[in-house]
């Protein structure tokens, strides 16, 4: 009996153990099957939150992840220093609630991880200046200043991303005049364009007067020309050196190129435009950049001790003329090698500000007047074209 009882207890124990194990496995299986149903309902991502402002982000430096919307206003290089041109690298940018903000206390300093630098760094993409963007990351100090680190996403406000600059576009001249350049970028594109535009007819300085009456003719009044900076329509016959006259403005100033008015860069129509005598004198040989005091007699023109800002309608025109000169004059023909500068106020043969000019080129599209002018110089006067009028995107393909 004892043996049987012992055997009975062993069987009962084994049965209980088996039932317990089966029940445990069934319960585990049930729970495991239930988890996928329960977890998503508890952790499903909420709809994307509305981006907060820069001022809100400055006041919420808690390390929390947020999306902030602001205008790109420069690159921070120190706690209280933000540069607006001559960007040293692609590592950071500053954003603000207004594109015109200059006080660093109203800016958020944004760290740019390596994965985003080619598209969002200012050295590579200076045309981002003034653009409104959305940035996602941790709200924590950067450069010992209210900032964003561990950045995980960038986008243009309202959606979209920056795109690498194209190196070929649509121009009637692509299959002929520009054939050796189409599809290239960087140094290869620069060399190809120089070789294409290098050979042309060189005018005398007196002939420039006559040529400008054709190339810059007012489309609404064939008896007048349009002054570059003022935008004023003035009689073709009112040229000279007296107040109220128009004269020949070298957009690449002679003293900044080391050339005279003998045939060559000093008579190249691609950068010489009619301009009011007084305004021409105010511009002098200054670089081009944003800011300064209002220029009398030139609506929406600004100047300071070392730079000049033309009206918005011709900022792209100015940029494209200077870019042409930097490609056309590479040190051959006995003339200086003309190069762009990332600073203003230099007394050398460089001219700038390159980053500002690239931004102007991107912001101010080529218009009908500019296209006609390019066609007339090519067909009637010099036999060469300004490639940055036909392909504005080539500026970024070379200088970025």
Describe the structure.
This protein is of the alpha+beta class. It has 2 domains: 54-156, Bacterial OB-fold (OB fold (Dihydrolipoamide Acetyltransferase, E2P), Beta Barrel); 186-399, no CATH class. 32% of the residues lie in helices and 20% in strands. It has 11 helices and 17 strands. It has helices spanning 2-43, 54-58, 117-120, 186-197, 205-215, 277-283, 315-328, 354-363, 368-381, 387-390, 394-399; strands at 65-78, 81-83, 92-96, 108-111, 132-139, 147-156, 217-218, 221-226, 233-235, 246-250, 272-276, 287-288, 293-294, 302-303, 307-309, 339-341, 350-352. It has a 5-stranded mixed beta barrel with strand order 1-3-4-6-5. It has a 4-stranded mixed sheet with strand order 12-15-14-13, with no helix packed on it. A hairpin with a 7-residue loop joins strand 13 and strand 14. Helix 7 packs across helix 8. The radius of gyration is 32 Å and the shape is globular. Mean pLDDT is 86; it is low at 1-48 and 160-167.
Brief overview:
With 400 residues, this protein is α+β, with helices and mostly antiparallel strands.
The number of helices is 11
In total, the number of domains comes to: 2
Number of beta-strand segments: 17
The unreliable regions are 1-48, 160-167
Mean pLDDT across the residues is 86
Helix content: 25-40%
User: Would you list the SSEs in sequence order as H and E?
Assistant: HHEEEEHEEHHEEEEEHEEEEHEEHHHH
- How are the strands of the biggest sheet laid out side by side? 1-3-4-6-5
Using the alpha-carbon principal axes, give the shape. globular
- Give a quick account of the main beta sheet: strands, pairing sense, barrel closure: 5 strands, mixed, barrel
Strand content is 15-25%
What Rg do the Cα atoms give? 32 Å
Task: Report the span from N to C terminus.
Answer: 97 Å
Structural class: alpha+beta
